[in-house]
Design a protein that fits this description.
By secondary structure, the chain is mostly helical. The protein has a domain at 35-99. The chain has 6 helices and no strands. It has helices at residues 6-12, 18-29, 35-42, 54-63, 74-82, 91-99.
Length: 100
């Protein structure tokens, strides 16, 4: 069955709604930082600042026998340490809302 018009093709393509696509893009761009990540990073002590290399931060976290969420990115670590991120974000924010 051939699609004869452009509107027929648009109807056939899933998720071609602008609002749906925008919502998907926002979900993809959202950082995933958990409450435990924030607690671990904020309790690292004065030796760790927002300027500290994220690889060094990860090493120090491991030395303290703590584990960060495996999806946390270097920029997210810097944002937590600088105070830009103060609450759970992304999928962890959704988990927090469900618990409330």
């Amino acid at each position: 069955m051939a699609l004869k018009t452009a509107t027929d093709r648009q109807k056939r393509i899933p998720d071609n709604d602008r609002d749906t696509m925008k919502a998907k893009a926002e979900r993809v761009l959202m950082a995933d930082v958990s409450k435990s990540d924030i607690d671990i990073l904020m309790n690292m002590g004065a030796a760790i600042t927002a300027d500290t290399d994220p690889a060094d931060v990860r090493d120090r976290v491991k030395m303290q026998s703590n584990v960060l969420n495996p999806t946390i990115k270097d920029q997210e670590i810097k944002d937590v340490l600088s105070g830009t991120i103060t609450e759970p974000t992304g999928k962890f924010k959704k988990d927090q809302i469900k618990k409330d």
